[in-house]
Design a protein that fits this description.
Elements lengths: L14 E2 L1 E5 L5 E5 L2 E5 L4 E6 L4 H9 L1 E6 L5 H7 L9 H4 L4 E2 L8 E2 L4 E13 L2 E13 L20 E2 L13 H7 L2
Antiparallel strand pairs: 1-11, 2-3, 2-6, 4-5, 5-10, 6-9, 7-8, 9-10
Helix pairs in contact: 2-4
This protein binds flavin mononucleotide (FMN).
The site of flavin mononucleotide (FMN) has 21 residues, from strand 3, strand 5 and helix 1.
Length: 186
């Protein structure tokens, strides 16, 4: 292999794409790929959010978030809620996403996603460009169609997951045509 050395960046693959609901009684939804499982006992998940995002203040103020895992069929809507801000519009009114009550937190989950993980924020770590919110998992919802014969979650049954693929850029230049996406996600 003939390798080149790049400037420091976070070139990882695969990178999962998730939809985060947050905000308690005034919910919003944001697309994220900076997400990780960061402990097992007790289970914790970290998400990293830029301070300028509308969702950043909602996570800070509500102290909670729900990780909703979309299927490949939800790729377009995942793009859409990742380029439009909840400051500008109510993304639940402009998309076909549906909210349902969570079990342990006030923020609703996305009924359309087969897996939903409710979290309470335990720590917020300032990481310059992003704040890493570490969430303690409170409840995990899984669509029964994803369970295998032993009751384990088999993501293959969701026909895969969405991964950000293609050219890895540290600063992606999204070139989504928002107006076209808006039509597609209604
Ligand atoms: C595939 C994808 C991954 C993204 N990952 C992140 C992320 O990890 N952290 C972040 O702050 N923004 C991320 N974004 C950008 C936000 O989703 C986007 O700025 C969104 O419009 C913010 O919504 P809000 O202002 O309603 O919170 C991502 C967008 C896309 C399309």
């Amino acid at each position: 292999m003939k390798k080149r050395i790049f400037e420091p960046n976070t070139t990882l693959f695969p990178v999962p794409v998730v939809l985060i609901t947050t905000g308690g009684d005034t919910p919003n939804v944001i697309t994220l790929n900076r997400i990780a499982s960061c402990s097992a006992e007790p289970p914790r998940i970290s998400i990293s959010v830029r301070p300028l995002r509308h969702s950043h203040a909602l996570i800070k103020n509500s102290g909670e978030f729900v990780v909703n895992i979309p299927t490949p069929a939800q790729q377009l809507v995942s793009d859409y809620v990742g380029v439009v801000s909840g400051r500008a519009e109510d993304k639940f009114a402009t998309t076909n996403l549906h909210l349902a009550p969570a079990a342990k937190v006030k923020t609703p989950l996305l009924a359309d996603c087969p897996v939903n993980i409710e979290c309470i924020v335990e720590q917020a770590v300032n990481l310059d460009s992003h704040t890493m919110f570490i969430g303690l998992v409170q409840a995990v919802h899984v669509d029964e169609s994803l369970l295998d014969g032993r009751g384990e979650v088999d993501f293959a049954r969701a026909h895969g997951l969405i991964y950000q693929a293609g050219v890895v850029r540290e600063r992606p230049t999204y070139n989504f045509r928002v107006a076209e996406l808006r039509q597609a996600v209604r």
